[in-house]
Batch of 2 targets.
Target 1
Amino acid sequence: MEKWDRNWGCRVDIDATSRGWESAVLQNSKLRVTILIGKGCDVVEVLYKPRDMDITPRTGRGLRRRDEAVAAPWSEMGSFLDQYEGGWQEILPHGGQPGTFQGASFAQHGESSRLPWKVSIVEDSSERVEILCTSRLSIMPFYMEKRFSLSGNSATLTMSSMVKNEGAVELPVMAGHHLAYGAPFIGPGATIEMPQGTTYSAHAATVFETGRRSNGASGTWPKMTSDTGAEIDMSVLPPKGTKSDLHYIKPLEGWYAITSADESITAKVMWDNKSQPYLWFWQEFGAGRTYPWWGMEYLLGLEPWTSAPGSGLADAVAAGTAPHIKPGDSISTALSVHIDERKSR
């Protein structure tokens, strides 16, 4: 029997499509992972099969058909946000709002999440599957590789990324795993666990129409002072309609865990926090009632990044947080997501 006919153990299909987008699907007995190869390598499904629970979010816009997305008007903000179905994105070389750097113009969250990638199978056995996805940027001379793998009966998705400078000059880069979460996995009452002693700072500017949730001060997780002076526990997600905000967290170790409000599911994310020392804590709890959310979304982002602040490559370079890559050199990051459930008594 040919490998692609296997319907047990670990298996992989790189010839799938999702609403017209070229896709890859990796599966084992615990997880089904769908990746939009034709759209930035977006991870649009991490389904925990025993609970039929997808921990990636889906926005009200949903995943638009490829022909609809291609026909949509382009804009600096909309190139990312108007086609943001939720899911998880690989972001580089520019993170955050539109900006410029040394004559290059970047739309919201740069270039990598809007490009089609190429895919090949690295390993395909009932014990382990791995795919390799590759792409080249056009604005800056970066070559990218991203690997996804599942092993055995483990509920762990492993992802690793590499970016190489193919140019003739040393170049800075911002690289982030845009990991977001939404219903039905998280909502009011869901909790976040961080390593003890984790610190944070707030985004310096007000980028949300409602003002901001915090008073802008730095602190130690999970205590935060609100814009009205009240003390907030950031580890417990608030009611719908709570103001939005953006914080930069510095965990002492590279992990965090999110548990659903009913405590049935926990997703633990582990990464190399030496290569990505910043964790962007993006909060959209439904208070944003104009573009782009229209009051529809309750979303949480906990995103490992090389750099901060989230206002573009030029600001990260000025802050001294953007790693520089010499010609011919590369940097790598690695991340895993493990899903666990509380056993019934």
Target 2
Amino acid sequence: MKRKNYVIGTLVFLSLLLLSACGNTYSNNGNGPAEDVLSKEVYSRVVSTYDDVGDFYNSVSVVRITDEKYQSKYGAINTSGEVVIPTEYDDVRNCHEGRCIVRVGGLFSGKYGVVDATGKVIVAPTSNYSKIEDFENGLALVKDAKSNLYGYINLHGEVAIPLTYKDAYSFSEGLACVEVKANKYGYINEKGEVVIPTTFDVAKSFSEGLAVVKKAKKEMVIDKDGEIIYTLPKNQEFYGKEYHDGLIRVINDLDGDWWSDYDQKCGYLDTKGEVAISFIYDDADDFEDGIAYVEKNDRIFCINTKGKEVECDY
């Protein structure tokens, strides 16, 4: 069961502004659906030019053109409908911190690069990166196609933290989970310094000041000092890997054998590891804006952080 994200609410205009010489006035700080961001004239021109126009994100929208052989190419436009990234890439992702990740070639065999919101190439996709994640606090996770090792680049495309890790995650809350050697994970700061020793068999990104880790077959939660906050009993395991609205999903197996799922139920723990919402659901999603989708007895509905059934935000 996957929760879909929907745009909630409506735009309220306090006054109408005169259109500029370009005929373009955009709202919501350049974020949102193209029909809301672009003027009517520009929107009409854009949708007649491209086969798909994505939502605007930081004043840039990813667009797609598909030829008669059903081969697609991607680029991007600004809030005036002008091309900022030519439609010559096999993929373009939404810009983060003024940088868009682009790909040339297949999903698994292609090369990745970085282009800024004006179209300037920061890292050419002819480089040796087989993976580049979105920028977070000025750093982006990259993977070297030859060595398969991970590291981080800055907004200028320069290597900020050397590519020496067997596995790594993007930075979250100022820390990144990295694997120094086989099945030995820890955390580094944005200077590349190890701040939580690489002693864990499995580790996940920090969320709300906490992270899920595993050591000696025990699943636990730690804080940013590396201190263990709580450890799960043997008959429980994390279903969600991050905290949302102060809660994390957990599966409880009544007899602890894990061989069948008839006695496995989902619930939520708080940041101290105490049961906040009982293990009564057959399936459950992470909370988002105080609401989570759950399933019980073949019925899907929504609950709030108190476990009370509420109307879903379709």
